[in-house]
Amino acid sequence: MTKGVVIKLFKFIILSLLIIVVFLYYMLYTEGGHQRLSTYASNHISNKMGEKIDLKIKKMSLNPSHLDITALINDSLRVELEGFLSLGGRYDIAYHLFGDTINFRGRRLSDNVDVVGKIKGTFDDFTFKAQGDALEGKVDLSLHHKAERDEDILLHLKDISSEKAQILLGQEALIAGKFSLDADVALFSYLEKKGKVTLDLAKSGIYLQRVKSTYGVLFPDDFMLSSKLTLLFGSGKDTFDGWVDTTAGKIILQKGVILNNNHQLNVLYHLDIQDLSKWAFLTKKRYSGSFVADGEIEYQNALRFDGVTHSLGGVIDYYYEKNVLEAKLQSVLLENLFRAMTYPPIMTGHVNGNANYSLKDKIAIINIKSEDARFQNSSAVRKIYNASGVDLSREHFTQTFFASSVDQGIVSYDFSAKNQHSYITLFNTKMNAHKNTITSDFDLKMQDQELSGKIYGSLKHPKVKLDIGKYLEYKATKEIDAFFGTGTTDDVKRKVKKQLKDVDLQEVKGLIKGFF
């Protein structure tokens, strides 16, 4: 190497060092440099967090081994950093984050933030600690960041505002209350996770109008809920269990599994509702009694669940998929069905059948049968006996059938109960749930009574229109047979029919009205 080449190389090195020194001086000790450093730091932090972060340096003091910076984050929170910083990239810095406003993701919240902590290490390998007050609760966090992963994460959140947390997460605040969270995570990265997280929601209310606006359901004013969920992740799958307890009932979740990057979920559940009437706000109809069931919930592109309950006697298996709920009834007690639907339990026996309901179209179809149905000794049965002398409690029906469909609040059904000697049939029945009205044809033969006609009017006070001709013919035949036996001439029948035209039908109408 010639002397001239050495001199040129030496000059290049000196010039490069001068440029680096001038650049460092400009960046670290001038206002323009601070602005450029703020922009670089903002972009770097934004890229790391995946969120837009605006960092403005208000004060900076640097020397080869000491850092002292005051900055403003997103025009809201202030941060003060002070500590050791080497040109080799190592640092040991204490910080204080504080303010009365949080500005994040375009959402601005009033909140008293006061968090202190320390960052120690290099840019690719450091420990981070934070402790203090935020979101109306307590925060305690420590972690070790290494390359593209976080290790040994310990996070404790206590009495955090559910409303503020939901807002900062970009969700509409529907729950009003406090929650706590404990996380012990050994490893967390894009490719691998291993640890445990427990979420504990204290007894909380909900924002009624917001829920109604979002989901179209108006919860009662006193509706409260609490919950505890535990998530374990690692070994290629995440598992969870927990419970949700409300003023209307409780559900326990067990053996939950999350697969395929959170796109598939399976969990066993136990549902315990002690008072069905508390769900009237959702069902739009008042049911009574308790309901306990066990089943499985699955989500894979769409929600599906099944279950089984013994709450009504016998067994009810149900299945939900694609907005359709199906149920199969086996030996279910009739009186329990009546009580659940808040109707007087006028019949008893066991029923088998099936039902399905389309949530989208609001159409229900029900088909049930019984081989041992009978009327119970109730006020309705006593009224019928007083009006007509017919004692329904004596009748045991070997063939009972009920077929019904519900479409937009209009209930259509056919009902028949038969044995060897008697029957009662309601057909072409339509009930309007919105207007509380009914129209139905009926046919009845029971204990020396044979009637047919129509029921119409309000459900509470229906009117009865009898087929007079058929009724008089039946009564005439009975009276003639009583006097002369069968086979009497037509002339004698006509005379008896004429005598029966003045019969009082009010008691007969009471026989039919007793059913409603």
What secondary-structure arrangement, pairings included, does this model have?
Elements: H1 3-29, H2 31-49, E1 55-63, E2 66-73, E3 77-85, E4 91-104, E5 107-121, E6 125-134, E7 137-146, E8 149-161, H3 162-168, E9 175-176, E10 178-189, E11 193-206, H4 208-215, E12 225-234, E13 237-246, E14 249-259, E15 264-273, H5 280-283, E16 291-300, E17 303-309, E18 315-321, E19 324-333, H6 334-340, E20 347-348, E21 350-358, E22 363-370, E23 373-375, H7 379-388, E24 396-397, E25 399-407, E26 410-418, E27 423-432, E28 437-446, E29 449-458, E30 462-466, H8 468-484, H9 490-499, H10 506-513
Antiparallel strand pairs: 1-2, 2-3, 3-4, 4-5, 5-6, 6-7, 7-8, 8-10, 9-11, 10-11, 11-12, 12-13, 13-14, 14-15, 15-16, 16-17, 17-18, 18-19, 19-21, 20-23, 21-22, 22-25, 23-24, 25-26, 26-27, 27-28, 28-29, 29-30
| Mean pLDDT rating | 79
Structural class: alpha+beta
Quote the distance from N terminus to C terminus: 116 Å
C-alpha geometry: elongated
Low-confidence stretches: 16-23, 499-516
State the helicity in percent bands.
Answer: 10-25%
- The number of E-state strands comes to 30
Largest sheet: 27 strands, antiparallel
Beta-strand percentage range: over 45%
How many helix segments?
10
Question: Mind telling me the C-alpha Rg?
Answer: 39 Å
What would your notes on this structure say?
This protein is α+β, with helices and mostly antiparallel strands. 23% of the residues lie in helices and 52% in strands. It contains 10 helices and 30 strands. The chain has helices spanning 3-29, 31-49, 162-168, 208-215, 280-283, 334-340, 379-388, 468-484, 490-499, 506-513; strands spanning 55-63, 66-73, 77-85, 91-104, 107-121, 125-134, 137-146, 149-161, 175-176, 178-189, 193-206, 225-234, 237-246, 249-259, 264-273, 291-300, 303-309, 315-321, 324-333, 347-348, 350-358, 363-370, 373-375, 396-397, 399-407, 410-418, 423-432, 437-446, 449-458, 462-466. The protein has a 27-stranded antiparallel β-sheet that branches. A 3-stranded antiparallel β-sheet has the order 20-23-24. A hairpin with a 4-residue loop joins β14 (249-259) and β15 (264-273). α7 (379-388) packs antiparallel against α10. The model is unreliable at 16-23 and 499-516 (pLDDT under 50).
